[in-house]
Specification:
Blueprint (H helix, E strand, L loop, with lengths): L6 E4 L2 E4 H15 L3 H9 L2 H13 L6 E5 L5 H10 L4 E6 L2 H13 L7 E5 L12 E7 L8 H11 E12 L7 H20 L2 H13 L3 H10 L3 E8 L4 E8 L1
Parallel strand pairs: 3-4, 3-6, 4-5, 6-7
Antiparallel strand pairs: 1-2, 7-9, 8-9
């Protein structure tokens, strides 16, 4: 067996594997305070539709246990917590303490607290959670920042109960007709907005690059199947700019 690579991509740049998590953490430390405003500006608010679609496909019911990985500022958790009440819970997890803190603040502002939601500072590649303890696992716009995606998918499979579902919402490959305009927006407009609004064009340039380095729809579907998931499928949204991948643990 060939040795594991000791470098990986950070956007378009190759960096030591041991450095990527630190660099990603720096990006999200920088953008945490303006993350929600930037999401609205960057997507013209469409990210809210993508997230609602994801929650609808989750098929949540009262009493369910849900893990929201890379849950950041809590958009999915806020939608899911009322759906699993009473008796259920959403565990909002993120590797970045600043993002997790922002998520806690936003959920408290919306009156979501107590047993409805818990918080977990954790690396998706090594979850400090018991086997077969969740009915649903979600990750929205976070998988592309994970260094070893196969490990993270394996952990998601491990913590799901039999019959449980994984939902991965992530930027993907748009249809060819959209590609030129999408590239122009990603590499010219997006960093400019980041500099104007958040005072940070470099972080948003990385985010645009990380999207291009993320596996396309079919590749990610195959990665999920290799991790053990059954009936893997995806739904293209907004011309494939975003895709929702789903898989089950039978």
């Amino acid at each position: 067996m060939s040795p594991e690579k000791d470098t990986t991509h950070f956007g378009f740049v190759e960096v030591p594997v041991t450095e990527k998590a630190r660099r990603v953490r720096g990006v999200f430390d920088s953008v945490a305070s303006r993350y929600d405003l930037m999401n609205d500006l960057m997507s013209l608010g469409i990210h809210r539709i993508w997230k609602r679609f994801t929650v609808e496909k989750a098929g949540l019911r009262p009493g369910m246990q849900v893990l929201d990985l890379a849950g950041g500022t809590g958009d999915l958790a806020a939608l899911m917590a009322p759906r699993v009440a009473p008796g259920g819970r959403v565990v909002l997890s993120d590797i970045n303490e600043a993002m997790l803190g922002r998520g806690r603040e936003r959920l408290l502002d919306r009156g979501i607290a107590g047993e409805a939601v818990e918080y977990c500072l954790a690396d998706a590649e090594a979850l400090p959670l018991e086997d077969a303890s969740f009915d649903v696992v979600t990750i929205a716009f976070g998988l592309r920042n994970v260094t070893h995606k196969e490990r993270a998918l394996g952990e998601m499979f491990r913590v799901l109960r039999p019959g449980g579902q994984l939902l991965v919402l992530e930027f993907s490959r748009p249809v060819p007709a959209l590609a030129p305009a999408y590239d122009l927006y990603s590499f010219r407009v997006l960093p400019a907005i980041g500099k104007l609004v958040a005072g940070d064009d470099e972080s948003y340039r990385y985010l645009a690059e990380s999207i291009r380095m993320h596996p396309d729809q079919q590749t990610l579907r195959d990665m999920m199947a290799a991790a053990g998931f059954d009936d893997c499928r995806y739904h293209d949204l907004t011309g494939g700019i975003v895709a929702l991948h789903r898989g089950w643990k039978y």
